[in-house]
Amino acid sequence: MKPRALVTGASRGIGAAIAEALAAAGHPIILNYRSDDAAAEAVAARIRAAGGEVVLSRFDVGDDAAADAAMNAILADPRPLGVLVNNAGIARDAPFPALERADWEAVLRTSLGGFYNVTRPVIMPMVRRKWGRIITMSSVSAQLGNRGQVAYAAAKAGVIGATKSLALELARKGVTVNAVSPGLVDTDMIKDVPLDHVMPRIPAQRLGTAPEVAALVAFLASDAAAYITGQVIGINGGMV
């Protein structure tokens, strides 16, 4: 049986698609979400209807105490946790002079604090088993920059640095660490983006889809990706 997979921020969009793809690949899923019970239950229902196994784990990855308690409970299960997908993230977009300190801190707390809170507890169990997959979602905004997204781009660039450094620490331990960097993907997160403005920047001349991103993540979580680590893999229609 394949190891369990924890996907954070998985009640909708890319996270939901990743949870479903990993379940289809045979991983029992731990579906993390922050607040939307109905959306999380809907994703779980789809996974179960397709024959997969899933449990819900409601906590804010950026809340240190809540994350510690949740991760302790997750790791208390004797079944190994072999795949971690750090997908949870938020955006608080504004021109930098208008960006409030609370919004800056919230964005970094979720992406970077969340990375620390969720990733650190799983590392030694993976090392002891000599197998693990840590995949963190970055963004094309981290690579190119984007007006009004100083906080979001900084947070997503931060996880690239964390990914590369952690990959060096774990490369000899059978644990791979990679980042996936989507471009514009057709989810609720970009519902207010003026497509006539951004489409000329996409050589493929279309938006990506959540299942396309999920398929890439599922590959990185597989045995076939054992020699891929420390990489930032773009899925952006040619933007980078």
How is this structure best summarized?
The chain has 240 residues and is an alpha/beta fold.
Set out the fold topology.
Elements: E1 4-7, H1 13-24, E2 29-33, H2 37-49, E3 54-58, H3 64-76, E4 81-86, H4 101-129, E5 132-137, H5 140-144, H6 150-170, E6 175-182, H7 195-198, H8 210-220, E7 232-235
Parallel strand pairs: 1-2, 1-4, 2-3, 4-5, 5-6, 6-7
Give a verbal description of the structure.
The structure is a single chain. With about 240 residues, the protein is of the alpha/beta class. It has a single domain (about 5-235), classed as NAD(P)-binding Rossmann-like Domain (Rossmann fold). It is built from eight helices and seven strands, in the order βαβαβαβαβααβααβ. It has helices spanning about 15-25, 35-50, 65-75, 100-130, 140-145, 150-170, 195-200, 210-220, and strands spanning about 5, 30-35, 55-60, 80-85, 130-135, 175-180, 230-235. Strands 3-2-1-4-5-6-7 form a seven-stranded parallel beta sheet, with helices on both faces. Helix 2 (about 35-50) links the parallel strand 2 and strand 3 (about 55-60). The longest helix has 29 residues, at about 100-130. It starts with a strand and ends in a 5-residue tail after the last strand. The mean pLDDT is about 95.
